[in-house]
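Lab notebook, bench 4. The sequencing result for the construct came back, and we need a structural model before the next group meeting so we can plan mutations. Quick request posted to the team channel:

Model the 3D structure of this chain.
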Amino acid sequence: MTPRIVQIGLEPLLPGTVRARPGGQAAWAGEVENYLGWRLVTGKELVQNFRDHVAQFGVECLEGQLVNAIVPSGDGHDVFTREGTRLHARAVVIATGRAPNRLSVPGEQEYLGRGVSYCATCDAAFFKDADVVVAGPGESAADAALELAALGARVTIVTPQPLRVPEAMAAGIASADSITVREGVKVTEIVGDERVTGVRVRDPGTGAEELVAAGGIFIETGAIAASEYTAGLVELNEKGEIVIDNTGATNVMGIYAAGDVTDTPGKQIIIAAGEGARAAMAVARYLKRR
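Done. Here's the predicted structure in token form:
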């Protein structure tokens, strides 16, 4: 039987509105420099390399097929897609990743990969000595700001709510001359030409608007694990991430998970790839035993 991979990239736009996008969040990256073996490659190039590699093995990829249900059936599970496809599998690896919460403001999509980023760990190095905005009210925003400041960036944290971070992190921000915190304002637009040049913010109380000059914006408002269709099937944590053991197995026999959709820390392409390999090896062992 020909092996099948249902390849799904989920990009939440509005609640209940999802569209397929091969490559997922990795394809958004303007430049990737922390994937071993590649000094510098764009996210799209890296994803295309992955696809070309898989194609050598005759794996059937059902692109544009959005999985919306996994149902126990016989000796395995039936996988259903929104497009009407039904696949039966003795084992399933869920690797649908996660999608960052968006600000949903003008310019956000337009400048994605050209100054708009959702990952400081991935992209902070490209903003050394630059003026940068970090949007977010919590620990991930503060962590991004500190990481950028350590590289010489001048950082403005923008948050509609008071910044909620651990005491030690708050002290680090307060002592950093290159970090400014703007509470009680929200981003209304991201502007630029070829790349981001500024971020427009507004005070909801007074209605006053201001353009903050910046070469980039890091949006750190949390993320949604793309695991909605697994609710009630496998164990999820409070963040909606799939709980796995050290082999990638879930609490349901025959169902595995890998990458950003899981509760494993370190949401990076190279970590997700390693987890995918580990889950594949675990599946092979599982099927041999059966």
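Residues 1-20 have pLDDT under 50 and may be disordered.
Will bring this to the meeting.
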